[in-house]
Fold this sequence. Notes:
The chain has 14 helices and no strands. It is mostly helical and 273 residues long. Helix 10 (152-169) packs antiparallel against helix 14 (247-268). It is flat. The mean pLDDT is 90.
Amino acid sequence: MCLLKASHPLPAAAVTALTALLAAAVGLGPGACARAVAAVAAGQLSIGWCNDRLDLARDRAAGRRDKPLAAGTLRPTTVGAAACVALLACIPLSLACGFRAGWVHLGCVAAAWTYNLWLKQTIASWLPYAVAFGLLPAFLTLALPGSPWPPPWLTAAAALLAVGAHFANVLPDIEEDVAGGVLGLPQRLGRRGSIAMAAILAFASCAVMTVGSPGPVSTGGGVLLGVTLMLCLLTVGGPPALARGRLPFVAIMAMAVVDAALLVLAGRTLAPG
């Protein structure tokens, strides 16, 4: 249980579940869906364990008793070994989805490891998110018969959603990150700047999916776009004191859920026949 907790289970489960829904939406069969989900799950576990192992010193300095490594209930060598095993398992699982699809997914995982090992503390911290999640639709469509690439608007929407999630994800710990020397782009922009970026990018993702999807904009799509615009304006235009409450984070998460649902619905337009 401690080992699972060190893998960042909630983000890993969220990405894996989104993959399963999107895989079914684009038309992958049960076997192909299972292979894609297994590959993503292995990749997410490797990324989470790698992240926790590399953050050990900072987490201990910050007194993070909620993390098994920092609390001393788990050995660093155990987490490091688990990260390597999951990464090695990810290789054949990814390639089992098809040669082109497999290498795309391995590129996504490599981008995430690059974030952990280097870019997390630089102004380019957003880049691995854009690459890894922007290519997630391609990983799934390339596993379809004929190996088609997804339309550019779907890639752009997924990348915007992921970068927005990056800015939102740092909000609970942004002060501790700065104190610990983690100076990615969100930390450099500060709490209020990160809130604004997360909200704007989430709305931009929704707008790209609504306008980019084939055919006229549906009533439902227009309503969802309006809802995300209102949440964006509420989050960005609120008083400075609001930035320290939970409302901005909750609003951004609501926008992200809407975007994720739209991403799955957009994937249905790519299903064969």
